[in-house]
Every structure is written in C-alpha cells, then in structure tokens.
Amino acid sequence: MSVGAEQRSLFVPDGLAGERVDAAIARMFGLSRTRAADLIAQGLVQLDGETVGKSDRVLPGATLEVTIPSLVDPLEVVPEIVEGIKIIHDDDSIVVIDKPVGVAVHPSPGWSGPTVVGHLAGAGFRIATSGASERQGIVQRLDVGTSGVMVICKSEHAYSVLKNAFRHRTVDKTYHALVQGHPDPLEGTIDAPIGRHPKADYKFAVMADGRHSVTHYETLEAHRFASLLEVHLETGRTHQIRVHMSALKHPCVGDLTYGADPKLARRVGLERQWLHAVRLGFEHPDSGEYVSYESTYPDDLASALEVIRGAV
C-alpha cells in the first residue's frame, strides 16, 4: 500500500558508467536491488526521458529520474476518528468501548479499514505500550464482524493485570447470539477443540488437534426460525462462538462463512453474523473492585431480531 510519491533526479556519475540500471539506482538512491527492479518494472524509472529495462546500461552524465512511492507499513497505527465507536467508561487505567461492526481491533496485513487503536490514538487517548506495536494495550479482541463491549488498557499495570485475568479466565464475557433453529438441549456446554480450517485459512473448525475451547449457552427466546441465546465464553478462541454453533448445526443468523442460510439472512436484513458482546465483567486492575459494563444491541441486530420475533 503506498500513499504519495517522491520524485528524484540525478546525473549518472562517471564511476557508474556501464552499470545496469537497477544496480545504478541501488547505488545512487540508497535502495535495494530488488526495490530498484520493482520500480523499473512499474515504469517509474526514466533514463534521459525514456523508460528503461532493469538490464539496460547507464552512461555517465545521463539523467536518471526515479519516482519512489512512499511505503506505508500495513501494521502502522493510523490515528483517525472512527464513527460509531462509543466510550462506555474511561479512567486512568482502562477505557471501555462499544465497538461497531466493520471495525478491527488493531491493524493487520490485508486490513485497510478502521481500527479501535487508530480511533483511540486519533481521539487523544494514551494507551499502554505493552504488546506488539500495533496491538499495544490490547488484552482482548472482537472480530471485525462482531460488535459490542471491550476493554483496552491505558496503564502498564492494567495491561499486566487484565492480560493475566483473561489468560486465567477470570473475566466474565457474555454474548448474545441469534442462531438458526433450536439447540437441543436448550442450554448446555460445548467442549470441542478449535483449530484452523484445513481448506480455508480465514476460517476455523472443530478439529481433533485444535486448542481446548469451551462455550456455555442458554436459550433466552425460542422463535419459529431462530433462537436467541446467552453465551458465556470460558476460553477465547478466534471465532469460537461462530464455530461451536455451526458445529451444532445452529449457525449464527447471517453468518454465511459458517453455514448460515443466505435466504434467512436476506429476510432479516443482515450482512454479518448476529453476535454481540453484551457484557464484560472483571476486577478493576487498580481498586480490585468487580466492575461490569454493558452494550445494547446495534440497530441492524435489533431490527433482525424483531423480524424473527414477528415471524409466524
């Protein structure tokens, strides 16, 4: 990904007479041979006004013009205010937010959209420096397509305490999921290991050699086409609820990645999985007092639920 470009022009010195163009560029502009060859291949190099091939030779006194796009690190945190992120709680140690759908928690290769850490930087929040540079202060994650409450650490002490709490499963993570059909039994525990899907690296699946994963659920409402569940996560694997419900043959409504019915998704107007982080409870890293934060359903999920409730 590149933003902007630098135009540079130099005369070929006598000492480089007869050199290949890619080698001359590497020496004159301080670039690697690979980068020089890449610029030539993109048509960004001219010798006396003519485009060149990487194996062409240079003559002394010739004008070498190079356009060098400025590279942007895909993991760089870009400060920007992201519409829809709500601050639920803020103190010296933590900030608790309500994350909307379509926002990633932190930058990653292949993701060029908005991020939570980018928003916090843009809004002037100072967050903990512990963790990888693009994930500083992050002790939990929500999928891009999952909305709801999450906590980010502002102090190093809070990061240490809460990272430990998540690791030792003392954080109460409560989700609501609208799933197709009616799970039997109406409440239960899914204990099934999760690993990366053998045929699609963007998905996960119940795998014999996967990581230990435990999901507790209970049915809050049962309707004709779908059931509203309250889900408590004992472990925190990527896509855990989505994978476990799909394995039970009751995928989240709208979750086409994990086998949801596209007709039902269209009927209720959903373009993502019906899954929302409604509550987060933990001991505050400073006071030790138990705190709990909540998030209401966003409009798309609330609207889809009303369609399901009204279905006869």
What do you see in this structure?
The radius of gyration is 26 Å and the shape is elongated. The strands form three sheets. Strands 5, 6, 7, 8, 9, 12, 13, 14 and 15 form a nine-stranded mixed beta sheet that branches. A four-stranded antiparallel beta sheet has the order 1-4-2-3, with no helix packed on it. Strands 10-11 form a two-stranded antiparallel sheet. 21% of the residues lie in helices and 30% in strands. It contains seven helices and 15 strands. The chain is of the alpha+beta class and 312 residues long. α1 (21-29) crosses α2 (33-41). It starts with a strand and ends with a helix. It folds into three domains: 2-71, RNA-binding S4 domain (Structural Genomics Hypothetical 15.5 Kd Protein In mrcA-pckA Intergenic Region, Chain A); 74-168, Pseudouridine synthase (2-Layer Sandwich); 171-312, Pseudouridine synthase.
From the N-terminal CA to the C-terminal CA, the straight-line distance is 50 Å
Regions with pLDDT < 50 over 5+ consecutive residues?
none
**Helix residue percentage:** 10-25%
Q: How is the CATH topology of the largest domain named? A: Pseudouridine synthase
N-to-C order of helices and strands: EHHEEEEEHEHEEEEEEHHEEH
What is the CATH homology-level superfamily of the largest domain?
Pseudouridine synthase
Choose one word for the global shape: elongated
Which CATH architecture of the largest domain is right? 2-Layer Sandwich
Number of discrete domains = 3
Oligomer: single chain
Total number of strands: 15
Look at the helices and sheets and give the structural class. alpha+beta
Taking Cα atoms only, what radius of gyration do you get, to the nearest Å? 26 Å
CATH class of the largest domain: Alpha Beta
| Strand content bin | 25-35%
> How many alpha or pi helices?
7
Largest sheet: 9 strands, mixed
Mean pLDDT: 92
